[in-house]
Design goal:
The chain has 2 domains: 158 residues, Alpha/beta knot; 40 residues, Trp Operon Repressor, Chain A (Orthogonal Bundle). It has 7 helices and 10 strands. It has a 5-stranded parallel beta sheet, sandwiched between helices. A 3-stranded mixed beta sheet has the order 3-4-7. A two-stranded antiparallel ribbon has the order 9-10. Helix 4 links the parallel strand 5 and strand 6. The protein is elongated. The two termini are 39 Å apart. The chain binds 6-chloroguanine. 6-chloroguanine (6GU) binds next to strand 5 and strand 8.
Length: 225
């Protein structure tokens, strides 16, 4: 049984799938920790053209995602799992940060059944406001505007799944690293060679003195902006 399930409702599955089949997200799937499913919003489109969008009442540019396809798509998932929670990536949502990612990961780790999130990826200029009535979490990635919810969906998924134990290599890697404790970013790190084009590695790291190395690392931890 996976710890966490994401059902992604999108018109552009092909934009998401390669990333989720690569590296850590693939590893999480392969180990049975995470499960990623897709629902093609187009299948819930209206009329012969399977239309999912329409022009805004009151006029204005662009097209808006309609309620019916979105509600029908979400309800088709909730019929099978009424506990699934809906995330809507939107530039007017709550800013996503490490703390929120951590709380989603902790919820998944401490639950005895899989935690299930439905991510609805909007596209076009926006969505009918009534869609918000079926949404549990409105999430924004920052103060800029993207074309659709696909990139945000990947960022949300990646930032949560990597925190679930068993996904990263060293059991401690997610705990020590950047942002986990307050706003400390991780310390500078070096690997071989010792001298690269005249840029050398701080001698202390070669000293074998772990007390001094820890001290140096603390002193050199970077602060987030
Ligand atoms: Cl979640 N969606 C879109 N479309 N743009 C964004 C965003 C989300 N977060 C920042 N910009």
């Amino acid at each position: 049984m996976p710890k966490i399930k994401f059902t992604i409702i999108t018109l552009f599955r092909e934009a998401l799938e390669p990333y989720l089949k690569t590296s850590m997200m693939w590893k999480a799937t392969d180990k049975g920790i995470a499960q990623f499913d897709f629902v093609d919003l187009r299948e819930f489109g209206l009329g012969p053209h399977k239309s999912v969008d329409d022009t805004p009442y009151g006029g204005g540019d662009g097209m808006l995602l309609r309620c019916e396809p979105v509600f029908n798509a979400i309800e088709s998932v909730k019929e099978k799992d009424p506990s699934a929670k809906v995330i809507l990536p939107t530039p007017v949502g709550e800013i996503w940060n490490q703390e929120t990612a951590r709380s989603f990961a902790t919820a998944a780790e401490s639950s005895d059944k899989p935690i299930h999130y439905i991510i609805l990826c909007p596209h076009y200029e926006g969505y009918d406001e009534r869609i918000l009535s079926i949404v549990d979490f409105k999430v924004s990635l920052g103060k800029y505007v993207l074309t659709g919810g696909e990139l945000p969906a990947l960022i949300i998924i990646d930032s949560v799944v990597r925190l679930i134990s068993g996904v990263l290599g060293g059991e401690n890697s997610a705990i020590i690293e950047s942002f986990s404790e307050g706003d400390n970013l991780e310390y500078p790190q070096y690997t071989k060679p010792f001298d690269f084009r005249g840029m050398t590695v701080p001698e202390i790291l070669l000293s074998g003195n772990h007390g001094e190395i820890d001290k140096w690392r603390k002193e050199h931890s970077k602060k987030a902006n």
